Structures are given as structure tokens and as C-alpha cells.
Amino acid sequence: MTIPLVDMYKDMLRIRKLEEEIFRLRLENSIVGSVHLCNGQEAIYVGAAAALDLKRDAVFPTYRGHGWALALGLPPRQILAELLGRSTGVNAGRGGSAYFSAPDHAMYGENSIVGAGAPIAAGAALASTFDGSGRVAVASFGDGTLNQGSVHEAMNFAAIRDLPVVFIVENNSYSEMTPISAMVKNDVLFKRAAIYGFTGARVDGNDPEAMHDAMATACERARSGKGPVLVEAMTARIVGHYIGDAQTYRTKNDLDKADREEPIGRAERTLLTRGYSQGALDEISHSAHQEIAGASQLALSDPLASTHDVLENLYA
């Protein structure tokens, strides 16, 4: 099913507004601890989520997972409450920015261990071959993650078992603060799929329609028993690796290029050429801002997580 670009534009704006609100809350110390934002990479999550069957598929993102969460349908109030340590958060305030999960929304947990999501996704895909669910598992991670041994093992295992798993590389060209071109001899990363004997493709990760089409093709292939797929989504951060990162490792030209090519501005320009008025697009932006601001206000008024039941759901 094709999703209208204007709907993808709305969802990308909601993610951007969410991340901007998280940034504000972190600066005022309402949110504590390390926070990693996805500004500039929204098209990957929105395009990919639109191609998934959220009633049965499973997504395993990294610690940069707020965008995935919103694209998969989590209510913004619950996301913000989780980051604020409130009892109304998606995991009752225990997961925070980098560790929350929501299996009812196909999101099976962020992970701050680089590359850890790949073997877990392979396990979910293996289970799919036994339970008859037709599930596709999606592991999404950054470009530097492909150098992790656990990812190599997951891809090799998925290949030899023809598992229904899609590996998404969110290639923003920086492995934290180091250019991927300085980390590997060949920085065309999708070509690694051929080493394992499965299909790979590179896609414009700042184009939600292209991302949707690539993921729809990948999921169809994986679901039909033809094995895993590696999708390299080319994108760029327009913020630092973490809040507080001064990005001194990036040139002004690099930052300017990222701002010019970021997905929300691109989608807006495309929609204008398709007959939408600037006023209509401004109203969409205003609506997204109001939704997130309202969700934040409600989350801030929610009770803090209790220490009395801290051992609940822990097992010896």
C-alpha cells in the first residue's frame, strides 16, 4: 500500500518536534543522562515503518530510537514520560532514553550495546520460521556498527538459514565522530551483503517514498523465504552524535549540505510542486508542534516513577 507523501511529511514533522522538545527538556535537566537525537534521519523511520506489518513484524533499533518509536505508533506522551522518568512512561520510567521497548507497537527494545540488535533480530526471525507467524524482523543500526563481530555473526547465521530479517544501515557517514571512509576500505556498505550471499541495496534515506519502496521490496523478499536483505539508507545528522557534541570533526560545508538535504525540507519542497500551499504545510507544522507541546506538558505533570516497586519484573 502506497502512503501519501503528505502523511509521511506529517509523521516526520512529529518526530522532529519530539526531538526538539527532548532537546529542550534535556537542557533544563528535566531529562537526565545521555540522549541521542535523530534529527535529519526521520525519513528512514517513517518510510520503513509504513512498509511493515506492525501486527506481526518486529523492530530492533539502537539507542537513537525515539524516531522509530513515534513512527511505529507509540503515543508521544508515553515516550516523553519515559524519558522524564514518570510512572506513565512506556516502561513506567525505567527504560529512559536509550532502553525503552514497546512490543505491542512492534518495537522490541532499544539497545546501547553497539550491534546487539542484529543477533536478537536474527533470533526473532528464526522464531518466525517455527511459529508460522510470517514475521519479518528488522535490525536498524549505524554505519560503524557493521564492523562489530556480533553483526557479522548475525548476518552469516541469517544467510545460511535464509532467515526473514532486514538489516538497515542508517548511514549518516559518521561512526560517532569518525568518518566511515576512515574506518573501512570500501564505504559502499550494502556490498557487504554479497559476502554472505544475500541481497543488498543502497537507498536515499532522506526520501521517505524511496525508503518505503526499498523496505517493501526487502520485506516481501524476506517474508517469501528468500532470505535476509541489507538496506543501506544514506542520510545525515543535522545535530551532534549526542546532546553536547560540538561536532568539531565536521566541516561547515558538511553541515550546510546536511541542512540543505534534510528530509523535512525536501518533502516540503516536493509537496509544493505537487500543489500543496505553503499555508497548508505551515498548518501541518503548527499541528505537530501543538501535539508534542501538549504531550510534554501532560508528561511533566505525571507522577515520577516509584522506588517502592523497583524490584517488580526482576527475576533471580
Could you give a quick summary of the protein structure above?
With 316 residues, the protein is of the alpha/beta class.
Properties at a glance:
single chain; 316 residues; alpha/beta; five-stranded parallel β-sheet; two-stranded antiparallel sheet; 7 strands; 45% helix
Largest beta-sheet details: 5 strands, parallel
Order of helices and strands: HHEHHHHEHEEEHEHEHHH
Number of DSSP-assigned strands:
7
> Per the principal axes of the C-alpha atoms, what is the gross shape?
globular
The pLDDT mean sits at 95
Using the CA coordinates, give the radius of gyration: 19 Å
Amount of helix = 40-55%
Structural class: alpha/beta
Strand residue content: 5-15%
Sequence stretches where pLDDT stays below 50 over 5 or more residues:
none
Chain-wise SSE layout:
Elements: H1 5-27, H2 42-50, E1 58-60, H3 66-71, H4 76-83, H5 96-99, H6 117-131, E2 137-142, H7 149-160, E3 165-171, E4 174-175, E5 178-179, H8 193-196, E6 199-204, H9 208-223, E7 229-234, H10 252-261, H11 263-273, H12 278-301
Parallel strand pairs: 1-2, 2-3, 3-7, 6-7
Antiparallel strand pairs: 4-5
Helix pairs in contact: 1-2, 1-11, 1-12, 2-9, 4-12, 6-7
